[in-house]
Amino acid sequence: MKKVVTIDVTDAVGTGDVLRQAVTVCVPDVLQPGDRPVVIFGLPGGGYNRAYFDLQIDGHHGYSEVDHHLGHGFVFVACDHLAVGDSDVPVKPIADSVVGAANALVARTIVDGLRAGTIDEALPGIEIAASIGIGQSYGGFVLAICQGDAGVFDGVGFLGWSGLQTVPPWPETVSLKDVVQQKAGNGLTHPMRPWFHYEDVPEDIVAADLTKEMGSMKADTAWSTRYMPGGPAVKMDRQPLDPGSVAAESAAIDVPVMVACGEIDVVADPWQEPVAYRGSRDVTVAVFPRMAHMHNFASSRVSLWDRLEIWANGVAATKGR
Question: Structural domain boundaries of the chain?
């Protein structure tokens, strides 16, 4: 079952505007009464929506992380941040912390709905073994805020995100403005290509992902989106690429943490990452070969998904000990 659900996050945002976030709740057909599945919430990165976790690409197969986890008995909730994908775009100014608070409300609402059996009339209540949040790239920034402030998940995975300093995925000679205005290339010549896609990713996938609209980070694909999380209304007093941008929130995380990245990524030194999560007694680091920053396009993506499942099951097995 894959069902689109909208969650009212008006109270979490607090501007008075009615705002909703969209998620796709994915439940395996193999789920049996009495099963205790792990629920994984996927938060996509900047320029991507929830379809990043359920990639359906013409002429290719096996790119859906959702389908992979469903086949192994996991529940997966693919999330659109505020202003991303099918979620509402805030108009009144909001802080970056509000984006994390809205995601926390979404996660709690979905977990409560799964347990109560109110997500779908055909789906009875489910006893959940653990809830896991994973954030890819900018989604890791939002996840750190969400977990550090609200503590909503039993474990968190940061995929292509550094709790110390995320390194920009473009040459120092190229500015973000140059990238958006396509002065540095587009499609197969896009300056982010070497950092986003390993050399063995099929060229038609690379071209589709990195052929952007002029003046935008949006591509003409199902997984691309116009706005960064929170949209243009976000008023930030910090930037995700600043050193220690979420240092306080990361240090406050007291649940198991997984840090995963490709051999080419935006994490300068993966083996230093546990320093950022001093509140956690359980930090796992994994680096995957033949993988660049956009993990779910990599030829080695299944290795990441399998390792994530092993880690998530471990979180569930040791929860509360």
Answer: 2-168+223-318
Residues 6 or more apart whose CB falls under 8 angstroms from that of 306 comprise none
- Cβ atoms within 10 Å, residue 173: 8
Residue owning tokens 């205005």: 181
Paired with 267 in beta bridges are 166
Locate 14 and state its tokens: 């607090």
The pTM for the full model equals: 0.97
| CA–CA gap between residue 22 and residue 8 (Å, rounded) | 9
Question: Is 118 strand, coil or helix?
Answer: coil
Q: Which residues lie closer than 8 Å to 243 by C-beta, 6 or more apart?
A: 164, 165
What six digits make up the tokens of 57? 């690409």
Closest CA to 194 of 83, 291, 276, 315: 291
**Distance between CA atoms of residues 261 and 282, nearest Å:** 18
Task: Give the DSSP per-residue string, 158-170.
Answer: EES--SS-BPPSS
DSSP letters, 255-319, are S-EEEEEESSSSBS-GGGGGGG-TT-S-EEEEEETT--SSGGGSTTHHHHHHHHHHHHHHHHHHT
User: DSSP secondary structure string, 17-78?
Assistant: S--EEEEEEE--TT--TT---EEEEEE--TTB-GGGGG---TT--S--HHHHHHTTT-EEEE
pLDDT in tens, 60-116: 999 999 999 999 999 999 999 999 999 999 999 999 999 999 999 999 999 999 999
Rounded percentage of the chain residues whose pLDDT exceeds 70: 99
User: Phi then psi for 123, rounded to 5 degrees?
Assistant: -115, 110
Q: How far apart are CA 138 and CA 100, in angstroms?
A: 12
Q: Is the dihedral of CA 3, 119, 26, 227 positive or negative?
A: positive
Question: What CATH superfamily is the domain 2-168+223-318?
Answer: Alpha/Beta hydrolase fold, catalytic domain (3.40.50.1820)
